[in-house]
Amino acid sequence: MTATVPADRISKAAAPDFTRDLDLTTGELRELLELAAMVKRNSSRYSQALAGRSIALLFEKPSLRTRLTFELAIRQLGGFSVGAEARIDAREPLRDVARNLERWVNAIVVRTFGQAVIEELALWSSVPVINALSDSFHPCQALADMMTLQEKLGDLRGRTLAFAGDGNNMAHSLMLSSARLGMNFALATPAGFGPDPAVVEQAGSLADASGARLSITTNLEEALAGADAVYTDVWASMGQEEEADARQKVFAPYQIDARAVSVAKPGALFMHCLPAKRGLEVTDAVIESSSSVVFDQAENRLHAQKALLLMML
Ligand code: CP
User: Fold this and answer.
1) What CATH class does 7-138+301-312 carry?
2) 238 falls in which pLDDT band (50, 70, 90)?
């Protein structure tokens, strides 16, 4: 886990942060997934692990799963949380917000728009900062997704995760996590909506090291062919509501319906981070099918985040 100390703040203690997926080493990711499985099997064993610890939850965007699973995880580990929904830097600079919070809490969980907000808080905070979603990454969701994939498929090396839709924060986090665990990642995205080239380059290096294949295409069938799991996400993320109509037209050919799923492996898993827009990125029949693991993913948010908190605190 990484920590950086600003040059003009020499007294800052080095705290591990989880601002993006690659703040965990591949070894730490594997360790976290093992711990998450253990926590899931025997939750009561960890019921006092965070006794006396407090964690701030700063959410600038709506949330059901992330907010509630963090609150539950903290409480079930014996700690307690405090929350705020206002824009984080509305009243004072982020560096001051960080230096207030570090006097009160043992960790800061942040959901915001710009990745830079999370990184600025992490730079100035002496307690760990955790990314609960930014426009660039959704690393906590990817932890739960890798846990779910391991539960369903076992060793992920040589398996293929196909992602259809926007080259967004979810695509970034899944691409990085799959590549480092040796899982092939095939992305189908319309021209002009591809992932950040810098993230693709990082994922490419990780894939080279693990033996995974990374492919990006505009052709949905090409990406889904033979996939072990098919993943999609909303076409207009939070903050893109005004683009929703235009995006629906561009993304319509990327809908995951029975025909699309039929080119994947028989029985391929269907995955979605939720909330889903049924009838847009996925049909009702696919998300309600026996291959859908969307609620397993949602459950595993709780276990994976408990493991993350245990490792960081
Ligand atoms: N998947 C996810 O992050 O859900 P929420 O937006 O409800 O937290």
Assistant:
1) alpha beta
2) confident
Whether 273 is a known active-site residue: answer yes
State the chain's mean pLDDT as an integer: 95
Instruction: Tell me what the mean pLDDT of segment 15-23 comes to.
Output: 96
**Residue to mutate, 112, 273, 277, ligand 1, most ligand atoms under 8 Å from C-beta:** 273
| 40 has pLDDT over 60 | yes
Cα of 171 vs centre of ligand 1, distance in Å, is 15
Both tokens of residue 134? 């930014």
* Nearest in space to 306 (alpha carbons), one of 38, 61, 111: 38
Q: Which pLDDT score is estimated for 240?
A: 86
| 149: pLDDT strictly greater than 80 | yes
Ligand 1 and 271: CB distance under 6 A: no
* Superfamily name and number for 141-298: Aspartate/ornithine carbamoyltransferase (3.40.50.1370)
**100/281 Cα distance (integer angstroms):** 42
Asked if 272 is an active-site residue, the reply is: no
Separation of alpha carbons 120 and 214, rounded Å? 31
pLDDT at 3 over 80: no
CA of 309 to the centre of ligand 1 (A): 18
